[in-house]
């Protein structure tokens, strides 16, 4: 019987390794840009076409490679970063495993051009699916240019698993931001489909943050710094009043390497305890400098996970550093002398009435023009109202949003569910009584027993059905904002917003794009009361971003789910009148699924009379 175990060919072994190292175009971007960093480049240009599926090119002015190194870098486990096992515990470079270039070359068509300062001619190496196609001497400036074409062209199944272009671009932009934040002393350029979208000069960290995320971030940054014998912390945290409903603006770097660490993120969030509303996330960019011997970065091929030898101490130091920063900066509101205080009054500090902050500015000749401007704005709001009052009253019944529509059968309201007949039992206003418990739950008594209802989840179901109806019918009503509000979102979230903009219009949002980069919220869905447009849109973006990697699938459901979750927060603990409780019960049992919220959580539970008797006995 012949032997069964055999050594895999290098090409297959490289493709297997590529499954971990090269997960999507963003993985290639990360590896190539980190190689440019290790080559001591002071300028790095990233060029992308077709969301990285067509072309990914990274050009740098680093040290370049010799003719031999240019060919050797495509071999598995070929690296210039380490020589012996002990070097793993003193790594200061971005790369060290020697897997990236071999993995990329096994699943794409790669062309490398490079030259060192001391060489008259540079080298060109062309590889396709791990097979060397060409190697020759060429003219080339000092540095390296690597072009990756047709990623996964030889593995159709992997290519088919790639998401839509906006999703892949968002991941690429994330990686670009990570590298650009970690190295503000390096000049970067980002070109998408032959259009330069980012030009970042070498600068300080604070300026780099503003250049990446927008001028609005300047006033929210609070410097954070702590120096101990074990670890040093530097960076910025966002002031609590600027926290968003979306994740994605939380960055940890250890020795200039971007990492993901839920434990350290918890340390930061605990420092913000009682300073943030529920579901809000602060902005932070924190750099930890620590002796490499205290960490292990050889945990995963992506190198975004790190183990610390004393994680609890790191947690305590990070938490203390952020708390100290907040205690210093949060007591003094930032002042913007270019802003009209009558239109942009900040949150009042604890114990200080808002009127006491603005009283000294409300008088004097300097505000005459501002007051007249406000009066004119209010007058414009009512222009034409008298002439159209009769037409408005005639149309009101048809355009007024009905959150709790009355479904009647004869003189009685039928509460039988469309989705679940509940043993063919009919509930109506004459055979049930309802009370509220702790302003969070409803207890519904009827002839056969008792039904307990979660108030917030019930509203989520009702609102979800309403929003889904608007999306399907494309007829959501909108309420105009007297003063449009600028929407502050990062570039990655803008890509999501562009893709779902039409659906938001159907819900009742009115958005206006200015200068190709700024969005203004001019209207929000009718019937949402005092809801803030910024928070509503942040909630939608968060839901879509983290629960639907491909927006082409179930997009309406995700958007309606995000809207219902956000809009139902106000009912989490709210006293309801008898009329409101009855309306809630009626609308719930007329909904598409009275048993389950859009999030899959149980809304109600029925206790039959015999169950109650058994519990008491």
UniProtKB/TrEMBL annotation:
Q: Which residues form a coiled coil?
A: none
Q: Which SUPFAM superfamilies match?
A: ATPase domain of HSP90 chaperone/DNA topoisomerase II/histidine kinase (SSF55874), DNA mismatch repair protein MutL (SSF118116), Ribosomal protein S5 domain 2-like (SSF54211)
Classification via Pfam families: DNA_mis_repair, HATPase_c_3, MutL_C
List the Gene Ontology MF annotations in alphabetical order: endonuclease activity
What domain of life does the UniProt record list for this protein's source?
Answer: Bacteria
The answer to whether the entry has keyword DNA damage is yes
Keyword list (alphabetical) reads: DNA damage, DNA repair, Endonuclease, Hydrolase, Nuclease
Q: Which residues form the DNA mismatch repair protein S5 domain?
A: 209-327
Annotated ranges, domain MutL C-terminal dimerisation? 433-575
Record carries keyword DNA repair: yes
UniProt family annotation? Belongs to the DNA mismatch repair MutL/HexB family.
Role: This protein is involved in the repair of mismatches in DNA. It is required for dam-dependent methyl-directed DNA mismatch repair. May act as a 'molecular matchmaker', a protein that promotes the formation of a stable complex between two or more DNA-binding proteins in an ATP-dependent manner without itself being part of a final effector complex.
Q: Know the name of this protein?
A: DNA mismatch repair protein MutL
Query: Native species of this protein?
Result: Aquirufa beregesia
Q: What gene name is listed for this protein?
A: mutL
